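Quick check before the chapter quiz. The format below is the same one you will see on the exam, so make sure you can read both the input and the output lines.
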Amino acid sequence: MKKLLLPLIISLPLFATINISLPEMTASGGDTLNYPVFVSNINASDSVTAGHFWISITVPLIHPIQVVPGDLISDWGVAFTYDSTNLTINISMWGGSIPVGSGVLFYIKFLVGNPDTTTVVNIYIDRCYLLDPVSDSIPLTVDSGSITVTPVGIEEQTSLPIVTLRQNIGHEVTVSSNFTDGFTANIYSIDGRLEKKIHTRSSSITIKNLSLGIHVLSITHKGKIVLRRKIIFMK
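Here is the expected output.
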């Protein structure tokens, strides 16, 4: 695990250094993952009241959809933006009660795409700071983390119908089958609204141009549902 000492302004003794750590986690294609950012060694004398984080990811396979406070700052406000071009997450937080001790500072909720092969997404804190009441930066050390994503290939296989889904990093989904007479694909929103209906006479189709977010795909053959799965479209 890579460890960096950030060049921050030191306003407290060195023994008060706080550590920020990102874990190494695993996920499967199509998961929704709550990724914790841990903090340790906050003392009452630190009087942390605000913070800011710039976090980067190395592969556009995970997409942040929410950032929420952890147990140490449960009554704080948190806001974030995501630059999908540069793969950077900008997080601001401001305080209510003063955090003390160690625990989860905040969670990043990621939508996880489905890669062709097992893929490691490295996660780095490029810059960060925590502030005391007079806006002095508190010394921090930072550990990087990662998410290892395992692909989900054949979604369902029975003795006769075989249906395979393959998602291309969130941009499109290819549905392949052993149906020589075609099939029907129905795409629903997460609240059950029918968004698109596709009839095909071939054994495969490619679905694209859906809105970002979670959808439900239903495949029917001769009036019978043979597959129903969640799909995720990301930038």
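If your answer matched, good. The chain has a mean pLDDT of 84.
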